[in-house]
């Protein structure tokens, strides 16, 4: 049996240098703590499967009263267009999310009806109740590094946190594996970035965001995972 695209990606990630990853294991440990019991807002981010990748990123996050984002649960999985909308709806219901954010790239225009239909089916099954959260699509017009760097910096400066005890292994692993310049598209990281970007309050005027890896983007070395096209 040949490994799936995602299994091959995971093996590759575990065996390449990660010196340019946006977050280190130390960064993740330092930004992991017990989450608050109440949140001002909760949302679910989705990076639908597509574009040659069979993994759908599904991540829940909440905004606390101090303006900090907390990643609460990662349900990223290999999933068809029938499965991942149900996963996202169940996660939204579990955490009381008021919005579901999905990436519209790679045919994502179909995502909104898939999500609302999944919610209606789950209502009929008795698995969820209440109104479907507001479903909003975003276009990833910026490069992944331009989207992810501000969120990595938010982690390093105490504005974004990983909830202790939560199932976030895929998300934290991808933060430590993905390197600027790589063609690999990590679903959990994308979903986590989308939901954090949506929830985080804007920085005060005049604030600056530094490059977390400490080098110019044009200095990225094309080695290991960067040297090959992976979904």
Q: Any overview of this molecule?
A:
It is a single chain. With 231 residues, this protein is of the alpha/beta class. It has one domain: Nucleotidyltransferase, domain 5 (2-Layer Sandwich), CATH 3.30.420.280. 34% of the residues lie in helices and 17% in strands. The chain has seven helices and eight strands; from the N terminus they run ααβββββαβαβαβαα. It has helices at residues 5-14, 25-30, 83-95, 111-125, 144-156, 169-177, 187-199, and strands spanning 32-33, 41-47, 55-63, 69-74, 77-78, 99-103, 134-138, 160-163. Strands 1, 2, 3, 4, 5, 6, 7 and 8 form an eight-stranded mixed beta sheet that branches. A hairpin with a 5-residue loop joins strand 3 (55-63) and strand 4. Helix 5 crosses helix 7. The longest helix is centred in the middle third of the chain and has 15 residues, at 111-125. It is globular.
Notable traits:
single chain; disordered C terminus; alpha/beta; 8 strands; 231 residues; disordered N terminus; Nucleotidyltransferase, domain 5
What's this model, at a glance?
With 231 residues, the chain is an alpha/beta fold. It has helices at residues 5-14, 25-30, 83-95, 111-125, 144-156, 169-177, 187-199; strands at residues 32-33, 41-47, 55-63, 69-74, 77-78, 99-103, 134-138, 160-163. Residues 1-17 and 213-231 have low confidence and may be disordered.
């Amino acid at each position: 049996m040949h490994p799936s695209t995602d299994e091959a990606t995971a093996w590759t990630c575990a065996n390449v240098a990660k010196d340019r990853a946006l977050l280190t294991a130390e960064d993740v440990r330092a930004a992991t703590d017990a989450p608050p019991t109440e949140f001002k807002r909760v949302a679910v981010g989705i990076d639908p499967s597509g574009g040659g990748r069979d993994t759908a990123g599904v991540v829940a996050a909440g905004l606390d009263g101090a303006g900090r984002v907390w990643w609460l649960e990662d349900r990223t999985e290999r999933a068809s267009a029938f499965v991942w909308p149900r996963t996202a709806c169940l996660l939204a219901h579990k955490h009381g999310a008021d919005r579901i954010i999905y990436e519209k790239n790679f045919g994502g225009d179909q995502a909104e009806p898939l999500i609302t239909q999944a919610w209606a089916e789950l209502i009929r099954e008795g698995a969820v109740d209440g109104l479907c959260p507001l479903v909003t699509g975003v276009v990833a017009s910026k490069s992944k590094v331009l989207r992810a760097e501000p969120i990595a910096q938010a982690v390093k400066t105490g504005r974004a946190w990983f909830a202790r005890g939560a199932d976030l292994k895929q998300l934290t692993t991808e933060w430590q594996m993905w390197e600027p310049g790589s063609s690999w598209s990590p679903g959990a990281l994308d979903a986590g970035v989308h939901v954090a970007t949506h929830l985080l309050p804007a920085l005060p005027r005049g604030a600056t965001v530094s490059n977390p890896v400490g080098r110019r983007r044009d200095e990225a070395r094309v080695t290991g995972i960067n040297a090959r096209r992976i979904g």
